[in-house]
Amino acid sequence: MGKHTYENLEIVQKATIILAEYVEHLAGPTGLMTVVYSRLDATRKNMDFDVVKVVAGLMQDNYPERLHQAMAAPTGPLLRGAWKVVQLFFDPRTRAKLCLVKDVDGFKDAVDASSLPTEIGGTCTEPLSVQPIVEFAEQAWAASRTET
């Protein structure tokens, strides 16, 4: 995901809901999810904070009890320092579930290697991609606009 990859945040919102509902379907009524966010090759210049705010807000407001843990790596000292301030805006229970990890090897402590993509040290060769979900949401959004 690069800066302003998605022109319409409503599409991102719909894609997030579709993905969350799909994960809820897979996990069952009491299942929890662990979110692994790989920041390999990420920089401040290609980070879309509007998308992050939409996704984090939806998940916190609508699926707070489904999250076991969310991890992001690699994170440098600047990002970890900023997190100390930003985390104050999160609900304390949600904040306790969020973790910035220095490097992607930290994912292996919380997630089985078979669930991690190979580019971050795992053995999964076909990880779930959000791109088809976003494309589906874009198509659904476009279709709903032509119906009105």
Number of strands: 3
Q: Work out the helix count.
A: 5
- The total domain count is 1
> Could you give the order of the helices and strands?
HEHEHHEH
* Whole-number mean pLDDT: 80
Quaternary structure: single chain
Q: Report the C-alpha radius of gyration, rounded.
A: 16 Å
The poorly predicted ranges are none
CATH topology: Phosphatidylinositol Transfer Protein Sec14p
Helix content: 40-55%
The largest pleated sheet is described as: 3 strands, parallel
Q: Measure the end-to-end span.
A: 30 Å
How much of the sequence is in beta strands?
5-15%
Q: What's the CATH H-level superfamily name?
A: CRAL-TRIO lipid binding domain
Q: Which structural class is indicated by helix and strand composition?
A: alpha/beta
The CATH architecture assignment turns out to be 3-Layer(aba) Sandwich
From the spread of the alpha carbons, the general shape counts as globular
**Order of strands across the main sheet:** 1-2-3
CATH class membership? Alpha Beta
Domain CRAL-TRIO: 1-128
InterPro entries: CRAL-TRIO_dom, CRAL-TRIO_dom_sf
Pfam families: CRAL_TRIO (PF00650)
Organism: Hondaea fermentalgiana
